[in-house]
Amino acid sequence: MVELSSNLLLAAFFIYIFATIAFSITIYYENSKSVNKTKRWGWISFGLACAGFLAQLGYFVTRWIAAGHAPVSNMFEYTTFLGLTIIFAFLILYLIYKKPVLGIFSMPVGIVIIAYASVFPSEVTPLIPALQTYWLHIHVITTAIGQGILGVGFIAGLIYLIRVVDQSKRSKQTFWLEAVIYSVTCAVAIAITVGVFSLNNYSVTFNWINEWEMEAQLEYELPAIVGPYEGELITADQNRFGPLLETPSWMNGVESPRKLNTFFWSILSGSILYLLLRFILRRRIAAAIQPILKNVSPQLFDEVSYRSIIIGFPVFTLGGLIFAMIWAQIAWTRFWGWDPKEVWALITFLFYAAYLHLRLSRGWHGEKSAWLLVIGFGIIMFNLLFINLVIAGLHSYA
Amino acid sequence: MNNLSCSCGQQNPQGTDLCGGCGKPLVASENQQVLNMRYEGAARRSQTYNKTIVDQIWNFFSSVKVGIWIIVILLLASSLGTILPQEMYIPPAVNPAEYYQDQYGFLGQVYYELGFHNLYQSWWYLLLMAALTVSLIIASVDRFFPLYRSLKHQRVHKHINFMKKQRLVSETQLDKTANTEKWLNSLKGKKYNVRTDGTSILAEKGRFARWGPYVNHIGLIIFLIGGMLRFFPGMFVDHHLWVREGDTEVIPGTNGEYYLENHQFIVELYDENDELFQTAIDRAGGVVVKTYQTNVTLYQRNDDGPVGSQRDLQEVDSYQIRVNDPFKFDGFGLYQVDYKLHELNKMMFTVENDETGEMIGEFTVDLFYPEQQYDLPNDYYVKLQDYLPDYYLNNDGIPSTKSRIPDNPAFIFEVNSPNQEKKEVSFLTIGRNFDPTNENVYSIRLSDLETKHVSALIVRKDYTLPILVIGGFIFMIGLVQGSYWTHRRIWIQEENGKVMMAGHTNKNWYAFKREMAEVAKEAELEQPVDRTEDK
């Protein structure tokens, strides 16, 4: 069953890639104004996206059956599920606005997030007592759907920015836009890097003192640029590469040296990939994408982004704060305990609340509003990836 | 203050932008390209008075700009508190001042000095919360009532300038008489509520979405007030309760009314050889906990007996407390939070004559209720001179105890034998038997020990929860109401053979424009034009 489940995820992954290609073809026909072909390819792309979604849903259901609990209980499972919810949110917004451009951006973001999940250990994990309740399913699934919809808001904002930012000269806008694209390349590159090394079954193991002050072994699937604090290579791996650096002692997240090492690798491989792209395209990546978007109405994408936020914000609030508080009351005796992950959920909530007020009352439309959504998604990703790196809070399950 | 009178005869209070009757733009709005429709152009208190100190405070807090600043400051402050762990998450026994400096160096010291180790309980953070609450109340009151009145009393027929200056407008020249019936049907087809006045039409739907923000603000206000009630005594009970297996303890916070007996504490691990979880369990070092459970019985004290009599406990209920499954009784909740396995409970010792090898006797020390003297056979006895449950050498090098929990017990025994005048003193710690004079004949040895599991529970009672639940519920309803519905209005009116159609919505203009275009098509009117779009 677990194997079937993994195969379905792999299938979904490839179908998403095909769907992206199909959306690109649709855009091509749309830009060359052939109405019938645009319509036909629009439906083919949408159908492929749905098929991929169903395959991944199949992965989700079969893994749920195999494990006996919803596969949202560790970083691998949560991250793949976030990819699924982004695709889901995209499908909803596609049905409202029918814009294939949204597809050629949303599908890759979903793909990258699912690929990025492969950085985390992917085995089925048993549930510790605090997780053994149906609130796990209710809280995590709702939160992920909320974040997925907010994510599509970010994607629409990004489309808006690539469309409107003036690429004829250097500016703060062009710089930050490249920075956003660079982060995406880092995610792509690390997924590829992890894939390459795992195909070769590379591993290197350290003896170290873990975050609970216990002696343990830590296995890296990538060559060690940065080793554990005061860690030592096990005897069998003495002649392996590294480590060049040591993890600072204040990084107390679960297995943070391995995560930090992965982070270094993503910067390294991401930079190589990005520079390679720049070298091939001979201009800013955003400038290279811009012509594809020439027929996109900025006003429309301003609205798509805003609409995603008003759909996603209540869902996120319900899952990430309200259900979270109910569960925290049951499992940890208090609905709110200022755990870092809780605080960052609150920060996400406050941030989008500020966004909505700025938009409604201060007239922050268009570019300002789109930049806010970039920051907002940055906060979500920060809470997902970085909080677990540095702090061993109550939410560190992987 | 003088009222603003409109050409339609309506008297409007000072501060009005759009006439409350016909919608004609008054002085301030006359030059706008597209009318600012917020709050229907009605006068708000904050825009009208600015004389007294009350006015100024009101105006300050009613401003959305101020509200946003409060949110942003709160957001930044909250993030500061996650840079280093809060005091509640550092080891409980350490001195915070030293801990932050030792662990995090200069940054830690500054963090501690600034009080950021307790940021969320600091006076200024609570003040920000209070400011947010005040802002929510004032900003909502300031806007809700004018908006409510305007929408309730809005007239169907609008001034021509109101129509012309809407964002979506269509103008149609009529060559025959107006077909009002057709217009009405096309609007009703889109589920609009329609009102007419002569040939003028006002079509409206989703007005209730406009109350969403106010409903969710009310929910938030209730929630925040509920949170503040916690500071009143009696609203909130929070105690730790450690119970050893086999013991019955009074439950703190119940005024001695309830007692709890711990029958057994169970820790269950996942099977290391479980096929499905094998890899994950190996990665975790072979140990993943499956269950923490305390089997308990609850007793209530019978108050009928005379004062000071043996406590008379009546069994009330039994329960298996687990993580995620607290035991609830009489408004209290008992939660499984912690445990300690194999805590030392009793120690057995033997006394031997080292010269003859003769065994003198055995005795058992209850580490929680030690006796002063232990009698052995043949008139031997051992006196317990001193007992240190958690032994350590303090700064002056003197043996002391850290607590009364027997984590590292040490004893000073005095052996008295009928054959000897001299009393022999022995000092015992775990793994060590120390003879201060080196002349002892009798030696004491640890022969056996007994341990027990201890379960830690939290006793909780929280009277603020119902208020928080109500607040949270209202908040969610308001949020959904304001987000998932939109308020849309279309006006159609005819004058001198020209039909004017104008539309307004509070959000999602693109989708509204599409709908309005469909209405126009069906009603055989010109397509609406978005007047904000670049030509």
From TrEMBL, chain A:
One of its GO terms (molecular function) is heme binding. It is found in: Membrane. It comes from the Bacteria. The chain crosses the membrane at residues 6-29, 41-66, 78-97, 104-122, 134-162, 174-199, 263-281, 309-330, 342-358, 370-394. Residues 73-198, 271-395 form the Cytochrome c assembly protein domain. GO terms for biological process: cytochrome complex assembly. Keywords: Cytochrome c-type biogenesis, Membrane, Transmembrane, Transmembrane helix. GO terms for cellular component: plasma membrane. It is a multi-pass membrane protein. NCBIfam families: cytochr_II_ccsB. This is C-type cytochrome biogenesis protein CcsB. It comes from Halalkalibacter alkaliphilus. The lineage of its organism: Bacteria, Bacillati, Bacillota, Bacilli, Bacillales.
UniProtKB/TrEMBL annotation, chain B:
It is a multi-pass membrane protein. GO terms for biological process: cytochrome complex assembly. Its main location: membrane. The chain crosses the membrane at residues 66-84, 123-145, 214-232, 463-480. The keyword Transmembrane applies. GO terms for cellular component: membrane. Residues 64-423, 438-516 form the ResB-like domain. The keyword Membrane applies. It is found in: Membrane. It comes from the Bacteria. Keywords: Cytochrome c-type biogenesis, Membrane, Transmembrane, Transmembrane helix. InterPro entries: Cyt_c_bgen_Ccs1/CcsB/ResB (IPR023494), ResB-like_domain (IPR007816). Pfam families: ResB. PANTHER family: CYTOCHROME C BIOGENESIS PROTEIN CCS1, CHLOROPLASTIC. This is Cytochrome c biogenesis protein ResB. It comes from Halalkalibacter alkaliphilus.
